[in-house]
Amino acid sequence: MKRVSMFVIAAVLAAPAFAADDLCTVNLQKLDNAVAAKATLAEPLKSQVEEAKKEATQAQAAGDLKACGTHAERALQLLDAPGDDGSGATS
After folding, report:
1. By Cβ atoms counted within 10 A, which residue in 9, 12, 70, 80 is the most buried?
2. Closest CA to 71 of 21, 39, 28
3. Where is the signal peptide (predicted)?
4. What are the tens digits of pLDDT across the range 51-79?
């Protein structure tokens, strides 16, 4: 019974680490898809999105999955916000 309990505890403690990795990876994939869907991005939006994506990939490479997810989410929010080029989350 102790082995089962230890296994369950280990699985529960490891779950947030996998969730952070998944969130980082999923947000980066969503970001790639969103950038590809919006062929023309006006400045300064384009620079802001590129900078946030760069920060996300650097954080991922450094193993900081929380920061990776945060930066990628910020870039997605920038893309979804109404902008000067008429784009926005109106779909």
Report:
1. 70
2. 28
3. 1-19
4. 999 999 999 999 998 899 899 999 999 88
